[in-house]
User: Fold this.
Amino acid sequence: MGTYLNPGNHGFSGIRNDIYVDKSGLINLINDTIDTPRRLTCCSRPRRFGKSFAAQMLCAYYDKTCDSAGLFDDLAIAADGNTSYGKYRNKFDVIYLDITNIMGEAGTEELPSFIRRKITEELLLAYPGMKTDDSFSTTLINATELTGNKFIAIIDEWDAPIRETPEVQKQYLTFLRTLFKSSGTTARIFAAAYMTGILPIKKDGSQSAISDFQEFSMVCPMEFAEYAGFTETEVQKLCMEHHMDFAMMKQWYDGYTLAHVGSVYNPNSVMKAIRNKKFHSYWTETSAAKSLMEYISLDFDGLSATLAKLLGGVEVLVDANGFANDLITFQNQDDVLTLLIHLGYLAYDEETKNVRIPNEEIRLEFNKTIRDVKRGDTIRRIRESEQLIYDTVRKNAKAVAAQIEKIHTEETALLYYNNEQALRSVIKLAYFSYKDHYLKFEELPSGQGYADIVYFPKKASPLPALVIELKWNKSVKGALHQIKEKKYPSVLSGYGGDILLVGISYEKDNVKNRRRHSCLIEECKRSNS
Assistant:
């Protein structure tokens, strides 16, 4: 049992001794690729989303120097007569590389040289009769011929040199090419390889042989989606077992909706909330929190306005195809937003190509960071939004109408509208700081119809509930009349606090060719019966 060759199952054993969510189905996906042209797999996901746990699990399963039956026999991988479970369990020599740790151990020695030297040393200890060669690939081939056994390669934090020391990335990528190229060498050495990190494989403009990897990321996770984090079913079960409020867990840590799986939760934050019995932003405890300030400070036209939309709950279209998969090559705001997807700051909808801020935890990080960076226009938008809420609560209808009109004018290129649905987008953008005080509901069934937007106060908020009705090319009085006639406030019948009815209308003045917004605000009169 070594450090880089056959590290054993101690890591996964420790994981099993704690609260554990069964993700052993991942092993099936890797087993299906063994000794096939699909043998190379790269899965990227954000920090603290269980990448290292998955790597430790795979080590424990494949490492032939230990017996891991006791760790897996009660998991999903062993159920339903799975023939591959026993076929591949503890049957391979495993090369395990934790690149972040290796970078610290290597010191001044070049990373590829250090890796080659350490693996060769451990191979000679395990197989004294093995012949070494100046070519590392030949040394590995000699080992497989001596043992009659191919390697499983497991590389954790594969992209650390790309993220942290970009000056060494060329030699590092060249080293990976020597191991994982399309010639027959790779097939002679490796039964399978699994790389995990934050970034997808670097696009360096050359004929990168490591492009032979099948890639799965937060942009396109495919069959690996359920292993990107905790699923809704898994979180519901955890909440029941540990007496946690599921609705609060969802509000704080959900939001990464992936195709074929649905909701995916941040596993690190969920587990910390369970252990601490407290819903809180645990994101600040990760190194990812330090990077947000750097990226949203980048000077790209439109980035500030885009951040304001995202903070307001508006989804933004993103082209994720041009991103170079590093932390320095940014051509436009789409590249910045794509990086934020991979870092976990934004959730990506694969079908619509839209991004959004996924949950309360990340929203707090954005709010805090934006106040710390030199984003004067974004800070101005935050203050204007906070003032708008204040004006609404104070029933200053004239000020509310003026601010809505201002937002419409500023965003006309992106939010051109001539119907109530599009007007809703401007309202959401104008009130984007609502989450400090309210929960937002759209098209909420109430009375004899659907309330356009309802802002419901959070438990600790002293503010009144807001029932907002939107009208296009109709009178603002008609908006308030509809709220009353269709009894929209009835949806809040169990709420004992104050309720404000807010009517907002928009019409275009064809003579002056300008937009006209109107607003009326009234207190909801409740019956005493």
The mean pLDDT is 86.
